[in-house]
C-alpha cells in the first residue's frame, strides 16, 4: 500500500509538527502562562488528521481506514 501522497509529505509534516505547536505554545505562554499549549496543539492536529482521513479516504473513496492511520504525529 502506497501511503505517501503527492503533497510533499517529507517536508510539510515535520515543519507543521514543529512550527504550529511552537507558535501556540509561545502565544499561550506570553498571554496566559499556560505550559500545555504545544500538547493541546498536537492533540488538535491529530484530531484534524483523523477527520481529514475519514472524510477524504473513507467518506469519498471507501479506502480502508486502517491503512490511513496518521502515524506521523504519534
Automatic annotation (TrEMBL):
Q: Which UniProt keywords apply?
A: Membrane, Monooxygenase, Oxidoreductase, Transmembrane, Transmembrane helix
Q: Name one GO molecular function term.
A: monooxygenase activity
List the transmembrane segments: 7-28, 34-51
InterPro entries the record matches: NH3/CH4_mOase_suA_sf (IPR037001), NH3_CH4_mOase_A (IPR003393)
Concerning Gene3D superfamilies, the annotation shows: Ammonia/particulate methane monooxygenase, subunit A
* The protein's name in its UniProt record: Particulate methane monooxygenase
Q: Which organism is it from?
A: uncultured methanotrophic bacterium
